[in-house]
Specification:
Elements lengths: L8 H7 L4 E4 L6 H7 L6 H5 L5 E5 L5 H9 L4 E5 L3 H14 L4 E5 L5 H4 L5 E7 L17 H10 E11 L2 H13 L2 E7 L15 H8 L5 E7 L13 H7 L1
Parallel strand pairs: 1-4, 2-3, 2-5, 3-4, 5-6
Antiparallel strand pairs: 6-8, 7-8
Bound molecules: S-adenosylmethionine.
């Protein structure tokens, strides 16, 4: 079902302009943009010199980062969301809470290499990304090889991906892809809320919904494996360049 455009969308987006670092141009060819277009952000200027920066892909209404950014005021957070209607809600909630350490990118994750410098991110969060089990949709899954190549590129050495999902199918797929695309799974559970990892977990909007249906939540932490060469799938992989001399 198509979501109805929010009332006064444009003026409200403009009112949040100071929180919004990038608004992607829908006319960009995604492959072309990811490979050729560069408007890299100066993250030290955004958050302050030397601050760690963490990024959530598909932030939805922003509930997860609202909580995490309050818990970790010394960290800068980037919230990435392709849907303008949705990111507007997240930005308005952030404004109401007055957190200074979150900025937003209204872009498809496919174009992250256009804006995020290589080796600049310490953690990436993938919370309840759409599983897309249908045949022919693999490329769109946010843990498919082309996205993992992008995450490898923007993550620091030993940078980590934190994934949560209710879909056993998507979880199995992701674990396979992490192993095949330069990540080491360092933590993994198929029932987060009855595991040692439950403490400190921030329940996202989608997670609350799945929990109310009694569904177990799968969680994995995958660390960038430096002993891996990716074949330069996004055109610039500093880690691989170093390994390949
Ligand atoms: C199922 S929702 C989960 C929202 C939130 N993370 C949560 O756990 O409550 C997935 C979100 O990812 C966004 N999304 C899907 N594909 C994306 C992409 N390629 N780039 C950026 N955002 C994307 C969708 O618009 C949607 O808001």
């Amino acid at each position: 079902m198509r979501m109805r455009r929010k009332r006064n969308l444009e003026p409200r987006m403009q009112a949040c302009g100071d929180l919004l670092l990038v608004r992607g141009r829908p006319c960009l060819n995604l492959k072309e943009a990811a490979e050729n277009y560069r408007a890299l952000l100066d993250l030290s200027a955004v958050f302050g010199e030397g601050k760690p920066v963490k990024l959530e892909v598909g932030c939805g209404n922003g509930g997860f980062l609202l909580e995490l950014a309050a818990r970790e005021p010394e960290v800068g957070f980037l919230a990435v969301e392709v849907c303008t209607n949705v990111i507007l809600t997240a930005m308005e909630r952030m404004r109401a809470k007055g957190l200074p350490n979150v900025r937003f990118l209204n872009i498809p994750a496919e174009t992250l290499p256009c804006y995020i410098p290589s080796g600049s991110i310490s953690e990436i969060y993938l919370n309840f990304s759409t599983p897309l089990p249908e045949k022919g949709c693999e490329r769109q899954r946010l843990t498919s090889p082309r996205f993992l190549a992008i995450y490898r590129d923007i993550l620091k050495e030993n940078g980590r991906i934190y994934q949560k999902t209710d879909s056993a199918f998507f979880f199995d797929y992701s674990l396979e892809q992490f192993a095949a695309n330069g990540f080491r799974v360092i933590a993994c559970t198929r029932d987060l809320h009855h595991s040692a990892y439950a403490e400190g977990n921030i329940v996202t909007e989608y997670e609350a919904n799945f929990l109310s249906q009694g569904k177990p939540i799968c969680m994995a932490i995958a660390e960038k494996n430096l002993d891996f060469s990716c074949g330069m799938t996004v055109g610039r992989c500093e880690a691989c360049k170093v390994l390949e001399g």
